[in-house]
Specification:
The structure holds 2 protein chains of 2 kinds. Chain A is mainly alpha-helical. Chain A has a single domain, classed as Non-ribosomal Peptide Synthetase Peptidyl Carrier Protein, Chain A (Orthogonal Bundle). Chain A contains 5 helices and no strands. In chain A, helix 1 crosses helix 5. Chain B is an alpha/beta fold. Chain B has 2 domains: about 260 residues, Thiolase/Chalcone synthase (Peroxisomal Thiolase, Chain A, domain 1, 3-Layer(aba) Sandwich); about 160 residues, Thiolase/Chalcone synthase (Peroxisomal Thiolase, Chain A, domain 1). In chain B, strands 1, 2, 5, 6, 7, 8, 9, 10, 11, 14 and 15 form an 11-stranded mixed β-sheet that branches. Chain B has a two-stranded antiparallel sheet with strand order 3-4. In chain B, strands 12-13 form a two-stranded antiparallel sheet. In chain B, helix 5 packs parallel to helix 8, helix 9 packs across helix 15 and helix 12 packs across helix 13. The longest helix of chain B has 16 residues. The relative contact order of chain B is 0.18. Classes of the chains: A mainly alpha, B alpha/beta. At the A-B interface, helix 3 of A face loops of B.
């Protein structure tokens, strides 16, 4: 999967956790999940769990800590997808 | 002399009506909310009927009770009911939901029994399957007993005392009493009070096993809840929520709030599970003390009570309850006040009973009527011997109600009684 493909899929994963739908439509790799999308920090766990299910991957604690903006989320997801491949 | 406390808003999620207008119509017309539950038949329950509100779960999101994000992952039915009753009461009192600053003057006392164990079943399965990591962030806030108060106070920005109470079937009246006391004593200007209950399959099953539920009317569900009748064979579990906005009278007048009624006082005690009281049976001495103390705190005489909204669940405790009211009030026979049991229409909503029945009591004060006791065509002769049957109406009576006494008695031998009045300047 290319980074753009992952980003498009990631939007769907994030959607239930943000009320800022306009911002979600225009996210880029620099978009911060908490500051820009106003996601409750407790909900980051739910996004990770949903991403695990969606991509059939396992995201360990250390990798999860890196997932603060869209770019780092894509980094972690593509890394785990490559490990699986 | 404490502050006077008035009711300025009400909301209700009842098996026979969601929202005040539907509920008022139902209690004036004796409409039952009890339905047959096919699932309970499959599960081999003896009692296969229940009072379940016609609740539109999606409305939590579509009517902006909570945001889409909060809605996503909300599983606790008790919390959903509580949110709707509380926010409807808030809107009814004429206040905005949105606020930037916490409302430091307003608190919340809301009660419930337990979290929705049906929702928790999924949690237990995941943990047992070694998948605790997949539970996510939303379980704890809904499993905790204070879940409902947390959701309500968070949505409305309530910044005064936020308390979750639990005292079985006395929970609702006790929540209202606690909120009243905080305002009367000057700790808060406004309290959002009430209670919620979702009798899920597992809790229902446990009651069924105690053989305290109605089991002979599964084919005629609307007849299954029969307080005070000779064929009363147990209660019918109900679910729902009731909520009230209580305010310091001066505070309410200043903002030009609509005033429904006044809370004159009340009492909450326990029979100590002594003198005949047990985990499941009330000590009559405790009940009588609770009612007399409520009248004394309210500063009224027993002759002033126009209406008793009884606990009256349709078990063999009904006769003793009537006897306790007679003893506490010193009034029996033809002198007994008009008395009704909302449970004849909606069953017994456990923790929510007190708040839903208080909403019903206030509606009777505001609109000048006494709702009927349905399914009372065959009175228990032991009750008919104590009080005149005219005082236990089977049809709605249009009549001015100035003062109502609302009491509930719960497992653990706990009692709560409120004295409610028409608001007089």
């Amino acid at each position: 999967m290319t980074r753009t493909e992952i980003l498009d899929e990631l939007k769907k994963v994030i959607a239930p956790y943000t009320t800022n739908k306009e911002m979600l439509a225009s996210i880029n790799e620099q978009t911060d999940l908490i500051k820009d999308l106003k996601i409750n920090s407790a909900n980051l766990v739910d996004i990770i769990i949903d991403a695990e299910a969606k991509y059939d991957i396992e995201i360990d604690y250390d990798s999860a800590d890196k997932m603060v903006n869209v770019g780092t989320c894509i980094d972690v997801i593509s890394e785990k997808l490559n490990e699986k491949a | 002399m404490g502050k006077r406390v008035v009711v300025t808003g009400m909301g209700v999620v009842s098996p026979n009506g969601v929202g005040i207008p539907a509920f008022l119509h139902a209690i004036q017309n004796g409409i039952s909310g009890i339905k047959f539950m096919p699932r309970y038949q499959e599960l081999n329950f003896s009692c296969q009927v229940a009072g379940m509100p016609a609740f539109d779960w999606e409305s939590l999101k579509t009517k902006n009770y909570i945001s889409e994000v909060v809605f996503h992952g909300l599983k606790g039915t008790n919390i959903g009911y509580g949110l709707v009753a509380a926010m409807d009461a808030w809107a009814d009192s004429g206040m905005d939901c949105e606020t930037e600053e916490p409302r430091w003057e307003t608190g919340c006392v809301f009660g419930n029994s337990i979290a929705d164990t049906e929702a928790m079943k999924n949690v237990i399965a995941k943990v047992d399957n070694k998948e605790a990591k997949k539970l996510g962030s939303r379980v704890v806030e809904q499993a905790m007993n204070s879940g409902v108060t947390s959701y309500i106070s968070g949505r409305l920005g309530l910044g005064n005392k936020v308390v979750t109470n639990s005292s079985a079937c006395a929970t609702g009246t006790q929540a209202i009493l606690m909120g009243y006391e905080f305002i009367k004593d000057g700790y808060a200007k406004r309290m959002l009070v009430g209670s919620t209950e979702h009798v899920d399959t597992y809790v229902y099953g446990a009651f069924d096993s105690m053989r305290v539920l109605s089991r002979k009317f599964n084919d005629t569900p609307e007849k299954a809840s029969r307080p005070m009748s000779i064929t009363a064979g147990g209660f019918v579990p109900g679910s729902g929520s009731g909520a009230l906005v209580l305010e310091d009278l001066d505070f309410a007048l200043e903002r030009g709030a609509h005033i429904y009624a006044e809370v004159l006082g009340g009492s909450s005690n326990s029979g100590g599970q002594r003198l005949g009281g047990t985990m499941t049976a009330a000590n009559s001495t405790g009940v009588v003390r609770c009612i007399t103390e409520a009248m004394s705190m309210a500063g009224i005489g027993s002759d002033q009570i126009d209406l008793i909204s009884g606990h009256l669940t349709a078990t063999n405790a009904d006769r003793q309850e009537i006897q306790n009211w007679i003893t506490a009030l010193g009034r029996g026979g033809d002198d007994f006040p008009l008395t009704n049991s909302l449970k004849s229409m909606i069953g017994h909503s456990l923790s929510a009973a007190g708040s839903i029945e208080t909403v019903a009591s206030i509606l009777q004060i505001v609109h000048g009527f006494v709702h009927p006791n349905i399914n009372f065509e065959d009175p228990n002769p032991e009750i008919a011997n104590l009080v005149s049957l005219e005082k236990l109406p089977v049809k709605m009576i249009k009549k001015e109600v100035n003062i109502a006494a609302k009491a509930n008695f719960g497992f653990g031998d706990v009692n709560s009684c409120l004295i409610l009045s028409k608001y007089n300047k």
